[in-house]
Amino acid sequence: MPFRFAAPSDDALPLHVIEQDALSGWLTTQDDPTRAWIGASGFSGALGETLLLPGRDGRPVGALAGYGSAKTRQRLRFALATAAAALPAAIYRVASGLPPEKAAEESLGWLLSSYTFTRYAGAARDSARLVAPGAVDAPRIETLAEAEALTRDLVNTPASDMGPAELESAARALADRFGAVTEVTGGDTLRDGFPMIHAVGRASPRAPRLIDLRWGTAGPRLTLVGKGVCFDTGGLNLKPGSSMGLMKKDMGGAANVLGLAQAIMALDLPLQLRVLIPAVENSVAGDAFRPQDILTSRKGLTVEINNTDAEGRLVLADALALADEEQPDLIVSMATLTGAARVAVGPDLAPFYCDDDRIASALIAAGSDAADPLWRMPFWDPYEARLEPGIADLDNAPSGGMAGSITAALFLRRFVTATPRYVHFDIYGWNPTPAPARPKGGAGQGPRAILAALPALLDL
What we know:
By secondary structure, this protein is of the alpha/beta class. It has 2 domains: about 15-135, Leucine Aminopeptidase, subunit E, domain 1, CATH 3.40.220.10; about 140-460, Aminopeptidase. It is about 35% helix and about 20% strand. Helix 14 packs across helix 16. Keywords: Aminopeptidase, Hydrolase, Manganese, Protease.
């Protein structure tokens, strides 16, 4: 599905964005028939209201989009997308009322509102199209929308059609599109070089693998690591059915880094990009890894397995160890890692961990500007002792149940020792309820903020 603005056209209907408090003033500038039509329709400017304005021949000559109040808009992103979803299919151009500082966000929301997942049923609907407002960077916004669509498509695809091999195919297709290079490690080499990735994925008939994509030959080095658990049964610590129902989304970290990588390459940013995705399925079989097993990681650290359902940090750890060996300028990991993060901040916020205050501040500011909100969480050093079971270097699931997202982040940090700048995102990757421009289903969380912050983080 292309996410493109409509070309400017004389046929584009002028769209007036009307705040509730500004409606009466706007009406004073209109002729008597228009005022009468709007009065008879009951249009009030409430958020989500729309109204076509008829000409003398009955055909529409314009449209109104209610923009509500500052208070109602404060509660959601992409407020204008409520109108985009309600207006009939036609081409519109913003004629008045849209605050310039919101033009980019609302334009992105308009494009994203046309997303539908139609692989298995239905068809893409005809939607209201927008001419890009003159003040926005239209190509960049289109790039952001397409990257988000990729992430949503990958997460929404069920595990029957999105296993490790299919995730590899998606990465290879992306690499081919932009001239990147992809290497994949599997089989005995995976057993020897990435033992924890192999241990987690070995019970599945769908072979585990490590996907390694590289793009760019000059500039600062950025490495993205995404959790690619294509389905998570919990392993021998089997999840209950209610918790297993959404586990097709457990590769949401991989989907998010691939969406971010697509945007970076499409925008031709002056950097060297590496994407690492440990792609596995955590299954139950006779050779599944077991509670109380002790695994030796790529880094040489030993890990006691106290819960086979805490598998994401294991596969990420081996990938992070590989990333760290190269000492890039910045490593970012993204994973649907813990339920504790959801309890802490819910599904809308993307919590992240970072020891560098400058990086954290840049990310938070960028997230606000990009309508991709983030929340900083602490790498809390006093909890480090909880990771040390005594029988091994690390415990993959410390007992007690408290601070689960923090201890998971601390676990991952143990595998990044040579690279001074590391950020970890513990995302949800899913919208449980529909919202403007954000339908129920797979979601990007963090990539737009990271992308917007990269100039500051890497001195681009």
